[in-house]
Amino acid sequence: MAKPEARPYHSPARRRQADATRQQILAAARTLLAAHGYEGTTIDAIARAAGVAAPTVYAAFGSKRGIVAELINQGRFGPAYETAVTAALSTAEPAQRLAFAAKIARTVYEGERAEMELLRGVGVVAPELAALEREGELDRREAQRVVVEALAEAGQLREDLDVEAARDVLWAMTGRELFRLLVLERGWSADRWQEWLAEMLASALLRDDAAGRKPTKKKRG
């Protein structure tokens, strides 16, 4: 008689302990990075400060680069981000969905600023930080898929846009560069940028009726 296949045991208490250990490691890493810089912070030092063994750090994050990536992600995708995403998915009104997309972008960029400034300040080498930013941009474009596909399924996208083109427009317009130029360089408030972006997204992506605009009359030849 064949033995029943063993199933992995997932203990809620064990998961909570693992999550707590990850947070200890991240807190220790952040403190050491601020004090000693990227090159001066080692996995062994992080492990000692967190009160765990070095193999535990490697098992949780893989490398020092993995720790840095998680620090950035926690800044970007905190509770405010989750709240905004949930709200965006709960509304069927197209312009409101795009307004939430603008809010999500603001939440990400405000959330990541402290971590990015820390990492630049402590000497994370430019190519490594640039690679993390590129990965984050690809993740951001993929995360926006659900918003665009919902608009397409409801017939709310502009007729001259297919789903991939609409994803490109949403990704580009909600990019970090516009936030940097208008908020950080030109001194716009984050509220003003968010409201402006919501209007621009509706204009660029939605059919006239979905955006609440009067249909554009075609000129007669």
TrEMBL record:
Transmembrane segments: none annotated. One of its GO terms (molecular function) is transcription cis-regulatory region binding. Residues 42-61 bind DNA. Pfam families: TetR_N (PF00440). Keywords: DNA-binding, Transcription, Transcription regulation. The keyword Transcription applies. Residues 19-79 form the HTH tetR-type domain. This is Transcriptional regulator, TetR family. It comes from Nannocystis exedens.
